[in-house]
Amino acid sequence: MLNLQQKQSLQQKLSPQQIQYIKLLQLPTLALEQRIKAELESNPLLEEGEEEDDLQLDNSDEPTDDGSSDLDDDLPSDDTQSSSDDEFDWDEFLNAPDDLYGYKAQVDHSAEEDDRESPMPALSSLAEGLREQVGLLDLDETEELVADQIIGSIDEDGYLRRPVESILDDVMFNYGVVLTEDDVERVLSRIQRLDPVGIAARDLRECLLIQLDVLGDEVDGRENAIDMLRDCYKPFTMKHFDAIKRKLNLDDFELKEAYDLVRSLDPKPGEGDFATQTNYITPDFTVERDNDDFRILLNGRNAPELRVSRHYRNMWNDLSAKKTKGDEKAKETKDFLKTRMESARWFINSIQQRRNTLLRVMEAIVEVQHDFFEHGEGHLKPMILKDIADIIHMDISTVSRVVNGKYVQTEYGVYELKHFFSEGITSDEGEEVSNKEVKALLERIIAKEDKTKPYSDQKLADLLAEEGFPIARRTVTKYREQLNVPVARLRKQIVLA
């Protein structure tokens, strides 16, 4: 049986311009550069450059600043005044002020030319290095095919997690060569002993054993280390030292010698070296000391000035001056120009508002964390996204997009903006302290503990309480895990008397 119902609902929909603004807002500097290049390639009316009557933002697109935290207030308006096919309102683009929100966007172009002239270093990936080393081995043509398949299957951390059967199938499918698992294992064994030693291991145990195998017999503790990994691997991972000593009949000195040798090995040979290029952090902001205050600069290296092409503007004016009624080709050209002009306007508008929003957020962060920028680490205050959103009268989601993946250059180093956000903890004296300060104290306590009897999480909680920070054991556990510090059992070390 069919039912016909009428339903009324309220939905919030974002315009294409607002969606574009949101996407641009969350891009870091280098990603923004690529996005601008793509827009310049796709829209012939958009070009780089600045001139007296260049394309600017019109004031009708300013977000309202009435204290509301709704998302709509943070987004640019998509209200475009309709115009006839014969008249296009260029005043909407030209000669509008660029000091939106009460100040001019400060963009730093200071070292732009020097940076552009700096040559990039020649980079060679680890995979290429391995192939060069394979070329020096005495391999036949079939073995070289296998070696190439193995190297191409190595993960970014240097391990080979593809089954040997899959490599066999690839060689047979791509080259029609039938091999056995022993053929692959023989080539794999030789690759694993190339530089870095242990590359292409199937697991950590194999990786460590390969590195021990290539060491000379004269290395102290080598034989005991090999026996420990082969016969007592599980007790080794759990740091059950008494069980290892009983199994291998070792004294404390021999066990420590073997254990320290294993600890000196590389658990992930080649990790991070498989990328063909190095990722550099490009700060989005620079905070400089300016007498008793701070000056905030937005990195403008990858955000060039944009404008609508004068050539296409003249083309529009020429078409508008002519009588083109009934001329379909002229109408299509005018429609194309009008659409691209609106697209260029939206994009330039969004870029400008992105700059201003980023500066507003950074100014608010500096305002709250003034002591940090004045004195450095150890003076970080508790701060959450809502604190910044309340200061700049924007939505929390807007602040989150600005903070995500952005960096600031300070006189104390380069920091991710997320570094300045943390929850607060109240000390015994009633002072609110950032949980980052508590984590730093926790690290110092663990660094000074007796390595033969590491502190439990409850003991760490008790010690923090003695320092004036009464927090629960589960909170200590959470902080310890965030610091990548293992549990007490795994922090245990062998210390000779």
Automatic annotation (TrEMBL):
Residues 47-77 have a biased composition (Acidic residues). The keyword Zinc does not apply. GO terms for cellular component: DNA-directed RNA polymerase complex. Transmembrane segments: none annotated. Belongs to the sigma-54 factor family. PANTHER family: RNA POLYMERASE SIGMA-54 FACTOR. This is RNA polymerase sigma-54 factor. It comes from Rubrivirga marina.
